[in-house]
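Question (not urgent): is this output format expected?
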Amino acid sequence: MVFGYTRMSPATAGSRSFLYFAAAFNFGGAALLATLARMAPGMLGMGAPTPGALLFVDLASVLIAVFGIGYAMGGRDLARLWPCVALGALSKAGVAVLVVACALGGEVAPLFLAVAVADATFAVLFIRLLRSHAAG
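Got this back:
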């Protein structure tokens, strides 16, 4: 029982479209992260990355893409797979908090602040979606 819910109703057409959009956002973000780390690391606030640093970037990119798969799965069958969306809300809120905390220490590139705003927005929208589809 995550967020106090035990059952969800099926996704509406609008909810399904939103979850597919969230999946595409994650796929794009994962590809952009992996590409920028190699082609323009300064945009990420990095110097020339070492192979070890690229491994962590690639691991993060895979995790971002896997969450995107979870959102697409939730869009396909929200009644069964709503925990994927709940975990997404938690992870997106966590990313936003982490980026803001690092920004307060002056350690964040401006691109990550935009990501934090987008992820915080997605977290709120995921929670609203779950609350609107809660059936018990």
